[in-house]
Design goal:
- The chain is mainly alpha-helical and about 200 residues long.
- The strands form three sheets. A two-stranded parallel sheet has the order 1-6. It has a two-stranded antiparallel sheet with strand order 2-5.
- Helix 1 packs antiparallel against helix 3 and helix 3 runs antiparallel to helix 4.
């Protein structure tokens, strides 16, 4: 005789022993930040639609000469409205849809920087400053806070973090089958195959 190899016996009905503390924790998003995303979405949709329907309105209000190619301005309006819809959708679960917020955050940082450079060079009129404040600077803080919450959530809110701090052996001791035995006890008696 050679040594006989036993086939691992499949286990079903494994559950974890209830802990005195919750197994999972997720980052909470303050309601006002969700509302800020909704308001931002509404603003972007309204502005985008206005840019498409009346491309010369902003230039008339600001009393500056319109662009030579207004269809370019209308194209920007389409993208602005689409981003507004995306923000409204992201408001339902900001931590899950953090990439949408990040895509919106980047131009809101670069826009004011670009405007400041253009102002120094004299290539853009001061009237654009109002648009930069309303369209970019106002939303910087809530967007930044949402991104920070997503970073803190470790997996952008999609996968809650476990508070378990034990070893693998501890985890096996806490996993109990429907017969009342732990995985640790069963693994010490014979090879086992666990099916989830």
């Amino acid at each position: 005789g050679g040594r006989r190899c036993s086939t691992p016996a499949p286990l079903r009905g494994v559950h974890e022993v209830p802990q005195s503390h919750p197994a999972m924790v997720t980052t909470r998003v303050p309601q006002w930040l969700r509302q800020a995303l909704v308001f931002s979405g509404a603003w972007h949709v309204i502005l985008g639609v206005a840019m498409v329907i009346a491309p010369g309105a902003f230039f008339a209000l600001a009393r500056i000469a319109p662009l030579n190619y207004l269809p370019v301005w209308q194209g920007v309006g389409v993208m602005t409205a689409v981003m507004g819809v995306a923000y409204a959708i992201a408001a339902r679960n900001p931590l899950r849809y953090w990439p949408v917020i990040m895509i919106g955050f980047i131009p809101k940082v670069l826009g004011p920087i670009g405007y400041a450079v253009s102002l120094v060079r004299g290539t853009l009129p001061r009237a654009f400053g109002t648009l930069v404040i309303i369209h970019d600077l106002v939303w910087l803080a809530p967007f930044a806070m949402l991104l920070w919450l997503a970073v803190r959530d470790n997996a952008a809110g999609e996968y809650p973090r476990s508070t378990f701090r034990g070893t693998t052996r501890d985890a096996m001791a806490n996993a109990i089958t429907d017969q009342g035995e732990s995985l640790l006890q069963l693994s010490e008696s014979a090879p086992r195959l666990v099916i989830f």
